[in-house]
Amino acid sequence: MLGALQLTGESQLRGLNGASAPEGGFMGASPDRSLTRTTVLLIACAAIFCQLQTRPSFAQGPQQGAGFLGGWCAQGDPAKQASITSNGVFFTLTNESGSTSTGHLQGAQQNAIVADGWQFVQGNLSPDGRRINWSNGTFWARCDNGGGGGGGGGGGRYPNIDGTWYRGGDHSLACYIRQRGRNLRLTNESGATASGSFDSRRHVTTNWSGTTIGGTVVDRGDRINWDNGTFWTR
How many CB atoms lie within 10 A of CB 11? Predict the structure, then answer.
């Protein structure tokens, strides 16, 4: 009898032990919890990534500030040529002395430009787009290029930029321009060629195998400031 009780007790103990820790019991649940945590983290990361992707870009494309681009005359004087160009990321301002500055737009209406390299002087574009009034008391006005645009000859209308030029003023980096009236053929220091033409008295537009680069002729025709940040001198 005692032996039977002992056997029964041992069987019950074995049954309790077996019931208390089934296969894959508490230890088996933790991979599911880890998987849940991983899923939550992945969802959170995806949400953050989407927020970053949808944040507005502040890079200034060519559409922004288009009213500032092109040739200008300092104080309205046609002999004092200035210009503003953009490569789609930043603006380049060139004054009548050939000095250049990067620039950025300012104001909710994007009708003000700040010249970072000229002690942050600010220019406000007039409503008609014909004048920039600078905070230092000066102004730039659109240049009147007199009479029509036709092709022939041009006489003294366009500056003579035909000849040999040097990139960055370095005489080991010779470039060449062949000019016929307002039309140009250019060769850079690497031998690449481009076609181009004057689109105003002091501004040229060139096409380098599909890439358009503008240039402003300054210093009595002895320097071209390109809107990619480089310049040629002679």
Answer: 10
